[in-house]
Amino acid sequence: MKIASLAVALAVAAFPVLTHAQAAPATQNVKADEQIILKQVMTDKRAVYAQNLQLTDAESRAFWPIYDEYEGKAKKLNDEFLALVDDYAAKFGAMTDADATAMLKQKMQIEKDREVLKQTYTKKVAKVLPPVKALRYAQIETRLDNMIRRDVYGLIPLAQ
């Protein structure tokens, strides 16, 4: 399945960026590289959905606008997360309790917002696709989310 290759591509692409961010946290701005990685992931993710959902023309006309709207809103959350990672990298090794408290609060809010967004758009997808395809969409979304989070969070060192 193409999902596994997406996870490997993400890990390979993200590893040099985040490893370098750890080595020079105060001086390295990784935003450009992060955006390249996210663009590739989004392209691959779309292909995974197209391949696995096998939508009819009518289903495609209904599904893709919802998917694009969802991804646009998810991108805002991804940008918030990447900004948090940049802040974390900049403060790595010299983080204060106040920094850690603020970052934890922001991390938890991003996760909450992401789950609300996912629930909202899964319901919208379920209204326009047959039940089996809607369930398949939800399963793919969960698998991709879990793989991406595992790979990204696995590259970020624990707070010191």
Q: How would you sum up this structure, described in words?
A:
It is a single chain. The chain is 86% helix and 0% strand. By secondary structure, the chain is an all-alpha fold. The protein has one domain (2-155). Helix 3 (57-91) runs antiparallel to helix 4 (97-128) and helix 4 (97-128) packs antiparallel against helix 5. The model is unreliable at 3-29 (pLDDT under 50).
Helix content: over 70%
Shape: elongated
Order of helices and strands: HHHHH
Label the structural class.
Answer: mainly alpha
Strand content: under 5%
Number of domains: 1
Uncertain segments are 3-29
Characteristics of this structure?
single chain; about 160 residues; mainly alpha; 5 helices; about 85% helix; disordered N terminus
In short:
The chain is mainly α.
Mind sketching the topology for me?
Elements: H1 2-23, H2 31-53, H3 57-91, H4 97-128, H5 131-155
Helix pairs in contact: 1-2, 1-5, 2-5, 3-4, 4-5
